[in-house]
Design goal:
single chain; alpha/beta
């Protein structure tokens, strides 16, 4: 629904904001609390919790949402809801089919991996990824 009713309409006339000729697309993931039913736990998984007190323990049904968002035009280009234990890079890879060679992809430091960098390079995507001070000596 979003793809047809919002995204296709947004870009149909080719009149949208760009930065130096590029769409600027941010990719990020977030845990999403889901209704705790047997079917949902079976499909998406659950995250266990506890605190220092033994009487407070349990689990919640969760999924991992990943969104590729056009930050200049304020529209979600693509989204996916994965298993609670999914790897953000795996979900982000699914977004690439909805991006183009003239997009600039922005990612947070959770995405800094050789696998993700090689995937973006293989798909001829331009990118900026924040990385921690402890990783990627060349970036430091």
């Amino acid at each position: 629904l979003n793809r047809v009713a919002v995204v296709e309409v947004m870009y149909a006339d080719n009149n949208f904001k760009r930065y130096k000729g590029m769409r600027v697309l941010g990719i990020d993931g977030s845990k999403v609390l889901l209704p705790h039913t047997t079917d949902i736990v079976k499909k998406f998984g659950e995250v266990r919790y506890s605190n220092d007190h033994t009487e407070v323990k349990g689990s919640h049904a969760y999924g991992l949402a990943s969104v590729m968002y056009d930050v200049l035009n304020k529209v979600a280009v693509d989204s996916v809801l994965g298993h609670a234990t999914a790897y953000e890079v795996n979900l982000a890879t699914q977004h690439l089919e909805h991006s183009c060679d003239d997009d600039l992809l922005l990612c947070d430091r959770n995405y800094t991996s050789y696998r993700w960098l090689s995937t973006l390079t293989k798909h001829n995507r331009k990118f900026v990824i924040r990385c921690s001070r402890k990783s990627f000596k060349m970036a430091r």
